[in-house]
Amino acid sequence: MDSFKRLFRKKVNSDCRCCQGLLGPGVWISATDLIQGSQAGCPACQLLYQSINLSDLCDPRIELVSVHAFGDSSVLQTFDPKSEGMSRQLYTQEGFHKGRWAADPSRPSHAPDRPYPPVERSVELFSLEGNTSHWPVVRAARHVAAVADAPECLDLIRTWVSDCEKKHRSCRKKKTPKTLPDRVILIRPGNDPQLVDSQGLPGRYIALSHRWGGNVSLQLTKDKLEDFKRGIPFSSFPKTFQDAIHICRALEVDYIWIDSICIIQDSKEDWDVQGSKMDQVYANCLLTLAADAAENGGAGFITGTERQDLSGKTRKLIYHGPQGEEGELFVRPLREFGSMGGFGRHYQGWAPQPQPEAETSSSQPSKHQLVEQGSYLLRRGWVLQETLLPRRMLHFLPNEVSWRCASASLCECQLRPHGNVAHAPLDLEQPREIDTEDLKEFWKEVVEQYTRRQLTFPSDRLAALAGMASRAQSVAPDAHYCAGLWSDALPSTLLWTVDRPVQLDKNAEEPASRRIDPAIAPSWSWASVTGYVLFLFWKRNYDRGRWAKSAPDLTDIQVQCTPTGQNRYGSVNVADAKLTALGYLCKVRLWLTGGSKWHFPFRMEGGTPGGTLGRTGGYLYPDTDEFLESLQASGKQGMSMTVVSVYGSRMFLVLRPVGEEEELVFERIGVLYCEEKDAVGLSEWGRRDRFTLV
């Protein structure tokens, strides 16, 4: 400890060749140079040295190798763990990150002779608002409070709400009727909450978005309706609901809407009615409060170990500037930035890795496996509409609060608004940002993101999307909603595919694709199967769907599709749901020619009127694992089936007869794609006829 303090007793030396005064966009400094610069009185070297945890400097198991100061307040510290075993222990169990030795010999972390990886820590240097740092690379930021209802945190939330209501033009344009939902919970301070029938009364309310995480302890049922109207003891609310009520009261909002209490859970009729109104519930609220940090109803989100840990690991550094003047900065662990779901936030990306013996000890997923970018909500199917439909979202994450509205994305720890925030992670396809005011235009992106989320009950596959379908219908009232597809986008959107993505994480569960039973949608709808849905032929490799502007091979489409209940956007009556069309039906024999778990090249042949065989090939996209396994088991013999061309004599639906084959009634079982050079001569391979899909 004494030697650590002696580094900072030297007089100031502002001309350091090691760190270059932190004036460059990024500075690499070896441990030796950093210590020498600090001893020589360089303020920047002293600052960087202070940013390293004393416990790491004194840990005999590791040795500091280098420090890399970036131009965005972040500092990367690299340590030599001295062995493979120690390296693995530190990055799997003790909070370090796995690093790699620099390939460039000029870098201080270049060590090609060491057969094990280094370990790293990343920290953030920051000053407080109003205290400008002497170094441009150190930005101003905010402290994260140890609890989410700390006075400074609540004041910040009030400022966000006030600024949005008074200053955000694009948010003020969306004038929302101040009508309460059919049922809301009255939560005025000093009294127990009570359920009220609003009867169209005006009022401000907040909606709660939360993860059920199993059975929620407080639910509205038919026999409890009158009791809940008389009053609900506050102590009977699970912790997540109590925290939400506490925040609402702090914001002086008298009503809250919680799905498990405002919808009669044992009434299908009430679910149908209220499910069809989800669009209005989330669109009309003052804001939606998202309990991202709560694993379930009993967990709560105001207090948490991650917040307390971050607050406890935030240290104040006293430094001397280039001219010898004294100042203060702060250092804390650097967290990752995420934007999935359409809002920016910082989160702890590291989590302990399971030990080999623990991997098979339980079939239950770990808490880390349930979390996506710091949120328990982002993997939940119901939550997508709860994220896209509200005008304002207030996210309570494990270690900060985040805000998203039509005008800004903000978080508790940073002063600056976030840049453009996408709903999906950036990939090579550069996905379009979803415009929540025109969900119809972005429906393919909505379905793709939605089907990558989890539903406890697959039968909710249409119901959990009903609010967004209602919003989309409002901008296209003449279009008919057909079990997850829109009538004016047919036949092109019939070419949806089931995606079997490459799993880079060996511990990740591969999504299964099977028919939902009992059926909630006809086979030609993506909602009829589980698994990830992809509108593949609208991606870059397929000319971004420009082919859909050409004349289709499938014409004269007529759809019959009626809902099973009062929710017109929910499950449909499969018994009478059908799609009839005129197209070229081709009887073929098809077999796979190789491939992998996600890639299925095929060859197929069809009989011509002259008796000769025509052959072509391409790629198969099976709807279900059952069909795929049957085809794989058939080997080179292949399977007989019927295909119908949708576009360009090379994009086909794969069909299986239902009942007698001559009735021309089929169910869809997959999609075929052929390259342009392999397009089929439809008049030679098949006949044009009217058929039915069920």
UniProtKB/TrEMBL annotation:
Q: What is this protein called?
A: HET-domain-containing protein
Q: What high-level taxonomic lineage is stated for the organism?
A: Eukaryota, Fungi, Dikarya, Ascomycota, Pezizomycotina
Per UniProt, residues of the Heterokaryon incompatibility domain are 205-386
Stretches for region Disordered: 348-369
Q: Which Pfam families match?
A: HET (PF06985)
Its domain of life reads: Eukaryota
Indicate, by first and last residue, each region the UniProt record lists as having compositional bias (Polar residues). Answer: 358-367
